[in-house]
Amino acid sequence: MVAAAVFLVLGGSVGFTHGRTITVDDDGPADFAAIQAAIDDSNDGDTVLVADGTYTGDGNRDIDFHGKAITVKSENGPESCIIDCNATEYDGHRGFYLHSGEDPNSEIIGFTMSNCYAPRECDPLPPWPCSYAGGGIRCKRSSPTIRQCRITRNWAGGGAGIHCVAGNPIIAYCTIWGNHAVNGGGGMEIYSSNPIISNCTFSGNSARYGGGDGIFAHNSNQVLTNCIVWGNVPEEIYVFGGGAVTASYCDIRGGWPGTGNINADPCFADTNNGDYHLKSQGGRWEPNEGRWAIDEVTSACIDAGEPMSPIGHEPFPNGGVINMGAYGGTAEASKSYFGEAPCETIVAGDVNGDCRVDFLDFRLMALHWLEAR
User: Fold this and answer.
1) Which DSSP helix (H) or strand (E) runs through 224?
2) Does residue 325 lie in a domain region?
3) Cβ atoms of 313 and 298 closer than 8 Å
């Protein structure tokens, strides 16, 4: 009995052991100067923490997890940590390439991936024997978690931003914009996969031929929640060869069936410069100036997300309901506007921040009563 108890204690302690944090900085003191070298040195449960900077060249592109259950994250978010593939049509490179059975415990968090061009690859699994698939990220037979990333100005034959085949990735709080494909799926192409996508923004993506310039779903079942799919040319979502895209509480240009979906201009702050914060008369975060700006209009996507989704770090007043899009649930979520200037004083019991304590506050509280955190 004593031996069994000792075994249980020791066995239980293994599950709570924290992995190492391995640091990366290409121009300062750190464990490694390149991201791939840090990954190669890591083991399951470790975190690779990447310092601010622009990472390019071998070792900082075509990044491969080799099947490891690790977290690779930036130190201060995608605006400060950029993977620049510096690729061309004749010298193709991706940002990340996960193809060794990675699961949701393999995490990519907080990077900008840009100037990536999918290399030519031949494999019997995709719909074509040879393809140029996946510029920013390609997931093949893998199901990683991708969060808080900006995937922009990448090129591919299909899935210029993200391409997933035979996998079920979790993608959240990402902005996928300005990517260009030849055959389809400028923003994302999903083939024989079942991804779960929440609080993402797809905009300004395009394809020369084919369809689904925002999202192209081929023989896949894709779930979208709290997302904005707007301004992709010429189509927002295209479903081909079976499967379905199930959307709820999303803003999709042209409309899409599903609970809570809307078809309204999201009022992005500045698409020409890649700023996809939502305009608000209550306050919008201005990242270049590091302050809150007041707009003349308020986006219909504010307080329009799934009512049961946690509002996370949204600043007050937040309406008690998460915003749609990549900044919903974050500290940079645009503030709610109730037709008058925001309250100068926070009133106890005023859950939604409209300067009143009323039945709506009770309703919001009841919706999240005893909700697990």
Assistant:
1) strand 215-225
2) no
3) no
Identity of the amino acid at 137: I
* pLDDT tens digits, 122-149: 766 555 567 789 999 999 999 999 999 9
Cα separation, 244 vs 247, in Å, equals: 10
Residue 88 placed within a domain? yes
Q: Distance (Å, rounded) from C-alpha 128 to C-alpha 146?
A: 26
Per the structure, how many domains does the chain have?
1
344: its two tokens: 């100068």
Residues 52-101 have pLDDT tens digits of 999 999 999 999 999 999 999 999 999 999 999 999 988 999 999 999 99
The whole domain housing 132 covers 20-252
Residue 349, by phi and psi: left (phi above 0), alpha (psi -120 to 50) or beta? left
**How far apart (Å, rounded) are the C-alpha atoms in residues 240 and 26?**
43
What is the value of pTM for the model shown? 0.88
Say if residues 26 and 55 touch (Cβ distance below 8 Å). yes
Cβ atoms of 167 and 159 within 8 Å: the answer is no
The answer to whether position 38 is within a domain reads yes
- 239-265 pLDDT per residue, tens: 988 889 999 999 999 999 999 999 999
Strand partners, 155: 117, 180
H/E run at residue 269: strand 268-270
Alpha-carbon Rg for the chain in angstroms: 21
Give the pLDDT band (50/70/90) at residue 184: confident
- The domain that contains 208 carries what CATH number? 2.160.20.10
Catalogue the E-assigned strands of 16-94. Answer: 21-24, 47-50, 53-55, 71-74, 81-84
- Asked whether 279 and 287 are in contact (CB, 8 A), the reply is no
pLDDT of residue 1: 39
